[in-house]
Amino acid sequence: MTARSEKTARPVVRVENLVKRYSKKKLAGPGAEVRALDGVSFSILKGTTLAIVGQSGSGKSTLALCLACLEKATSGSIWFEETDITQLTEKEYRRIRRQIQLIFQDPVNSFHASWTMLEILTEPLALQGNVRRDEMRARAHVLLEQVGLSPEMEGRIPAELSGGQRQRLAIARALTLEPKLLILDEALSALDCSVQAQIANLLLELQDSLGMTCLFISHDLAMAAHLADEIAVMSRGQIVEQGPPDKILKEPESRVTRELLAAVPRLNFSRPGMAES
User: Fold this and answer.
1) Which helix or strand (DSSP H or E) is residue 255 part of?
2) pLDDT value for 2
3) Are 50 and 230 in contact (CB under 8 A)?
4) Secondary structure of 137-176 in the HEC alphabet?
5) pLDDT on residue 189
6) d(CA 107, CA 185)
């Protein structure tokens, strides 16, 4: 039985009425207030994937940063298991951050340019301070194999890798500390279609084998339907529609969802349990 078939009703993440405001300064006089998030609420069950889909400027990336403890919410709650992380001190934040990993569109800026793949993967373990060097290397090799890369590549630096290989490396590093939540912020959008499909299938395989809980953020409704158990559509800082992929694709209720569907050149993805059109 796979991890996906053993899902429980216990949420790993529960977001309640989340608001994030920014001040937009002017050269003279008071600045305007921008609401990047305006009362967002949702939950993600253990072992499942929620996709947040929306156009540029809808608030998707701000939501990712708040969940990853990289931005402080203005108001509302983010419950990570039994802890409201909006109420934590900076020291407490650091403890939670290890359990929530964020992967960006192009991970190259998050890699040290001169570090080898082995150094990139062992750094999080080295910071723990209680793992032997041989154990760290063995763990790095396991991670490389899990994401479809050869351990023999351990000496390469990021500049020597293709875009797909860099994204696989980013996934491997995110898994190093065995996080409870993996956030992917437009993590596939910079890749060509064939590589996108390969990485998407890798994510599904990892979720089945590791029981990962994921938040997948994208503007691509087709890919969201392929990966997610549920889709939430965002516009202007709010969730305007939410439901299972089959319903979102075939019975869209909001204008924003219909526009996103119209922008999809093909809807040829399918996943177990989704009805064929």
Assistant:
1) helix 255-262
2) 41
3) yes
4) HHHHHHHHHHCCCCHHHCCCCHHHCCHHHHHHHHHHHHHC
5) 87
6) 11
| CA dist., res. 56 & res. 221, Å (int) | 13
- For residue 107, which amino acid is it? P
Which candidate, 252, 253, 256, 250, places its Cα nearest to that of 275?
A: 250
Rounded CA-CA distance 94/127 in Å is 12
Single pTM value for the model: 0.87
pLDDT at 62 over 50: yes
Residue range 176-194, pLDDT digits in tens: 989 999 999 999 988 888 9
Residue with tokens 């992967």: 103
Query: Does the pLDDT of residue 3 top 50, yes or no?
Result: no
Domains of the chain, first to last: 1-80+200-264 (3.40.50.300)
Q: What distance in Å separates the CA atoms of residue 146 and residue 139, rounded to the nearest whole number?
A: 11
With residue 227 as reference, give the H or E element that holds it.
helix 221-227
Which tokens sit at 215?
């938040």
